[in-house]
Amino acid sequence: MDLSLSLLLIRFTVGLVVMAHGAQKLVGIGGGPGLQGWTANVGKMGFQPAPFWGLVSVSAEFLGGTALAVGFFTPVAAALIVAQMFVAIVKVHWPRGFWVSSGGLEYAFVIAVVSAAVGLGGPGRYSVDATLGWDGLSGALFVPLVALGVIVGALMIRNGQTAAPARTAPAPKEGTRHAA
After folding, report:
1. For the chain, domain boundaries
2. Which residues contact 12 (CB under 8 A, 6 or more apart)?
3. What digits encode the pLDDT tens for the residues 13-61?
4. pLDDT one-digit tens code per residue, 67-103
5. Model pTM?
6. Which residue of 44, 74, 128, 177 has the fewest CB atoms within a 10 Å radius of its CB?
7. CB count, 10 Å around CB of 157?
């Protein structure tokens, strides 16, 4: 049995969902923040420079999702999505538990696993990569690309760990005594 139609359905659906999430962050569809709002959120998470990392994040979702949907540069697209979901899981969703209804990692985990499966196995016969003769490169390129993406993501997370600003006590009023 040819699984190419099944793979097309999976790849196309997940790619479009990821692309739509990127579009929320890029242009604000579906109540999303748009690029300016997303960049502000990225900065609040501690990623600096926020405009650069905001654009990287949006690109990983919008361009990676679009490319995955049509099966173009599939190992790169899948690796971008896996790296993006890794950062999202570690930085945002992990502390909230598993269930997406609580802001947990459920959704990002499924997206990462499906993207990884497509990146490892290739896009299938019904893809731009197959038309160009590139479909045999997926497994060989995917693993090093994901490794690179996870390393960059881990560095982003590490560098995005900003300590809360130190609270300073208000200056004592003149003529008052305070303990040392």
Report:
1. 4-159
2. 69, 70
3. 999 999 999 999 999 999 999 999 999 999 999 898 999 999 999 999 9
4. 999 999 999 999 999 999 999 999 999 999 999 999 9
5. 0.83
6. 177
7. 16
Chain-centroid distance of CA 81 in Å reads: 6
3-class secondary structure per residue, the chain? CCCHHHHHHHHHHHHHHHHHHHHHHHHCHHHCCHHHHHHHHHHHCCCCCHHHHHHHHHHHHHHHHHHHHHCCCHHHHHHHHHHHHHHHHHHHHHHHCCCHHHCCCHHHHHHHHHHHHHHHHCCCCCCHHHHHCCHHHHHHHHHHHHHHHHHHHHHHHHHCCCCCCCCCCCCCCCCCCCCC
Find where tokens 């739509």 sit.
20
Q: Per residue in 121-171, pLDDT tens? A: 899 999 999 999 987 777 677 788 888 878 887 887 777 654 333 333 344
Per-residue burial over 19-56, b = 16 or more CB atoms within 10 Å of its CB, e = otherwise: bebbbbbbeeeeebebbeebbeebbebbbeebeebbbb
